[in-house]
Amino acid sequence: MKLKIRRYRWSDLDTILTLHQICLAEVGLAPGDGVYYDDDFPRIQELYLACGGDFLVGEVDSRVMAMGGLRPIDTETAEICRLRVHPAHQRRGHGAAMLLALERRAVELGFHNVRGDTTLNQGAALLLYQRHGWREISRQQVGGLTVVYGEKRLTPAAMLER
């Protein structure tokens, strides 16, 4: 089952919000826990697309099974957020495909660095970032969760060749 990655459309909103909630529940997390929230979903156009970022969805058989956002921090750096893969489609390379697509898109938009965060609860996400050259920059306790912050320097030539 091949993942087809495309840009977010307004009609995806309910589907990606549900995907977000399913993925968090799978690792024992929930919106409103102090780390995760979902109030940005109705504002994807404003917070991701209109300000120089992007939001991508991944489809398998025309059904959204993955997503990820790219939100500018400043002119050099973008944040990768909302990287999610439906539990039934994990361990198939879809997370890596979404991460690489977001990194490529960041380069196309002129960013030189990407940052992101996850929690210790999300071991698969931590391994994904490590395998793709991200480095941990800090950790912070938020409520009962340990949030791990990471970053990666993008090399435009390498990213655009993939």
Key structural traits:
162 residues; alpha+beta
Word description of this protein:
The chain has 162 residues and is an alpha+beta fold. It is 31% helix and 33% strand. The chain contains five helices and seven strands. It has helices at residues 13-26, 44-49, 94-108, 123-131, 156-161; strands spanning 4-7, 54-60, 63-72, 77-85, 113-119, 135-142, 145-153. A seven-stranded mixed beta sheet has the order 1-2-3-4-5-7-6, with helices on both faces. The chain starts with a strand and ends with a helix. The model has no long low-confidence stretch (mean pLDDT 91).
Quick recap of the structure?
The protein is of the alpha+beta class.
Indicate the topology.
Elements lengths: L3 E4 L5 H14 L17 H6 L4 E7 L2 E10 L4 E9 L8 H15 L4 E7 L3 H9 L3 E8 L2 E9 L2 H6 L1
Parallel strand pairs: 4-5
Antiparallel strand pairs: 1-2, 2-3, 3-4, 5-7, 6-7
The spatial strand order of the largest sheet comes to: 1-2-3-4-5-7-6
What is the straight-line distance between the termini?
A: 20 Å
Secondary-structure-derived class:
alpha+beta
User: What is the molecular shape?
Assistant: globular
Major beta sheet summary? 7 strands, mixed
**Sequence of secondary-structure elements:** EHHEEEHEHEEH
Discrete helix count = 5
